[in-house]
């Protein structure tokens, strides 16, 4: 499938309840196994008491991260690093990212930009919440599939990181070429349709619409490999739509002791 072909229609995804997955509801867990084995991703319905405060943390983070991204380049460049999993990442097409290491969050060494310091507690809480959520889903998923448990020690988060992002690119600009995520699982909060996924059946690119602001959970290459390809890491790309994009995303990686 040529990467330049336009998306045709929207991709329909399973909606799964976080509360029911957290409670290990058999039907919901089996739905998760099917979704991540077939499409490789699903919408996570966060309605319920478990995610209440964590969802409230997102609004101030989005507001303050935009203040940072609107700073002069010389201010933002202070947070660039030589490590692609951490720090400020600019581009020449209007996309900017800030990757915040989970390991630094745990160690108390995270150096947040000045604009984000008023919401440092919200940032740390969001990192902790999503990290724990994905680890729990991964453990449930592998147990349900009869697979050896993955190496997901929360005190050894490896390369795991929280991404804050913004895009002011022109409509139709390809922001990220077709790829699979590298880690174990990814969770993405987004407010504008921008993710296009290659449909495994039709081999057409399909747009992933916003679904009541539910986040997306998707398989990445580490978990596909650990499952002997029983799980499917979907090929996807990012294309800018009509409006600016605000993004909060978390990439979960295995602990270093098991990464090969």
From TrEMBL:
This is Isopenicillin N synthase-like Fe(2+) 2OG dioxygenase domain-containing protein. It comes from the Eukaryota. It comes from Lasiosphaeria hispida.
